[in-house]
Design brief:
With 153 residues, the chain is α/β, with parallel strands linked by helices. It contains five helices and seven strands; from the N terminus they run αβαββααβββαβ. The relative contact order is 0.25.
Length: 153
Amino acid sequence: MAFEEAFAYLKNQGYGERVRVFEVSSATVELAAVAVGTEPARIAKSLSFMVDEQPIIIICAGDTKINNSKYKGVFHKKARMLTADEVRSLIGHEVGGVCPFGIKDGVDVYLDESLKRFEKVYPACGSAKSAVELTPEELEQLSGSKAWIDVCK
């Protein structure tokens, strides 16, 4: 169901033709890079956290990790990633297919500065066998992100 919602959203916005569905898994950065045919850094991975009882998604380059002190500087809280069950119930996607498209209401999306170094990035599209090719600017527009932030190393 999550893929259908994400795809419908992207199609409605005029980006449906950019969605790619794979025969193989794209559930991890490494698998997605192979499926897409790109370097792992260009995979726009979605990380899910809880901030003040509200779920958020941070989308960052595939070769980065959350820097805890930078995260705390932005959100004024220690980073607490969601469990797989929480991701499913609060975000609306399964781990491995989390993306900012077709998510549940009340989920804030943030984009990490690490994505800006690329012309094209590849976030998932609601399933562990999908991706969509976007520029960072298109990702910003389509995700309804609250802000660009710098929380990765």
